[in-house]
Write a structure and sequence with these properties.
The chain is an alpha/beta fold and 271 residues long. Helix content is 41%, strand content 25%.
């Protein structure tokens, strides 16, 4: 189901309002669940039959790296915990979910985790394609910048005509920040997410320029007229200006970049 940019931003703000909210909110009706297994975090989102978020839980963790699961047991445990929190909030039993994977990697890396956690996998699609489906894009590219990988999906009339992935992402920026300020990885992650510090964008610029080079190669010859950024790294203030300058195209960043892919995954089963 395709939605307008404005509609998606409203839904993202609704998701942000319920994020990690454990207050009881009994729900009675059809719902759909999405699980996003990222390099820096795992997000579980529940949407109603109209695609509106009713629960969302995030746990920071490094159980996946560069599209490879490095802590299978840890990932399964996190999914189970997030499922239990969502069940307790909504008063429902969650038995199935959709998920995603970086382009060019094996989808079973994600589906095996969900199945081991006791969930039936109803839909699975690569990350940028999930976003492309949600927005029903034409002559556009979705660039999903996660912690370890950057995925690109080129869409024409809502259909993915190219997808690619490279092992470069926000983790590289975090390591640069950690080295510059003598911080631990966790402290550098926190500093990266704080708005209003222009020095962070300057430190991130070389990595972002490398990512732009990758994206430029991915979109070459496809008539792309617009770039949509998604993924946690896109929370970095000013990132769209770097991409617009390097790629020479209009660039959009959603209101809550960290939650765009989870929303898109949860929406896969919404008709």
């Amino acid at each position: 189901m395709g939605r307008s940019w404005q509609e998606v931003n409203i839904l993202l703000e609704e998701a942000d309002r319920v994020l990690n909210c454990e207050e009881s909110a009994p729900y009675d009706g059809p719902f759909h669940v999405g699980v996003d297994l990222g390099t820096a975090d795992v997000v579980l989102m529940v949407v109603d039959d109209r695609g509106r978020p009713v629960a969302a839980f995030l746990e920071w963790a490094q159980v996946v790296r560069d599209g490879v699961v490095v802590d299978f047991v840890g990932a399964v445990d996190i999914v189970r915990r997030l499922v239990q929190k969502a069940e307790a909030r909504l008063g429902v039993a969650i038995t199935s979910a959709s998920t995603s994977f970086p382009p060019g990697t094996d989808a079973r890396l994600s589906t095996n985790i969900l199945e081991t956690a006791g969930l039936d996998v109803v839909r699975v699609m690569d990350e940028p394609s999930c976003v492309g489906r949600l927005l029903s894009l034409d002559k556009a590219a979705v660039v999903d910048i996660g912690g370890g990988t950057t995925g690109t999906a080129v869409l024409s009339r809502g259909r993915v005509i190219f997808s690619g992935d490279e092992p470069t992402g926000g983790t590289h920026i975090t390591l640069v920040i950690a080295g510059r300020y003598g911080l631990s990885f966790h402290e550098a992650e926190e500093k990266k997410r704080v708005a209003g510090d222009p020095t962070i964008l300057d430190l991130a610029r070389p990595t972002l320029q490398r990512i732009c080079d990758i994206v430029s190669g991915h979109i070459a010859g496809h008539g792309v007229q617009e770039i949509i950024l998604s993924g946690g790294t896109c929370c970095l203030e000013g990132i769209e200006t770097v991409f617009a300058r390097e790629l020479g195209l209009p660039v959009k960043v959603p209101s809550r970049p960290l939650l765009l892919t989870p929303l898109a995954i949860a929406s896969l089963a919404v008709e």
